[in-house]
């Protein structure tokens, strides 16, 4: 699977979240940005993103997934730090 395919899959879920995906094969790094994450813990944010691709993970299409889920403010702060 390509990163563009994973990104399209995530965007097809119509969450309104912004995604950036890197990786290839079955291993991907997903960055999700949304105001919805404001009241969630880091683990709950990751779980929310992983739920979107749970079927693909269960089927083995996707395997090693790293999720970074941020609010827009957190994303801006990271960019200011060069991360």
Report what the structure shows.
This protein has a single domain, classed as GMP Synthetase, Chain A, domain 3. Helix content is 42%, strand content 25%. It has four helices and three strands; from the N terminus they run H-E-E-H-H-E-H. The chain has helices spanning 3-11, 42-52, 54-59, 72-80, and strands spanning 18-24, 27-33, 64-70. It has a three-stranded mixed β-sheet with strand order 1-2-3. The model has no long low-confidence stretch (mean pLDDT 93).
Task: Describe the structure using short key phrases.
single chain, alpha+beta, 83 residues
How much of the polypeptide forms β-strand, as a percent range? 25-35%
Q: Write down the overall geometry.
A: globular
Describe the main β-sheet briefly.
3 strands, mixed
CATH hierarchy class name: Alpha Beta
The averaged pLDDT comes out at 93
- Ends distance: 26 Å
Look up the CATH topology: GMP Synthetase, Chain A, domain 3
Strand order, main sheet: write it out.
Answer: 1-2-3
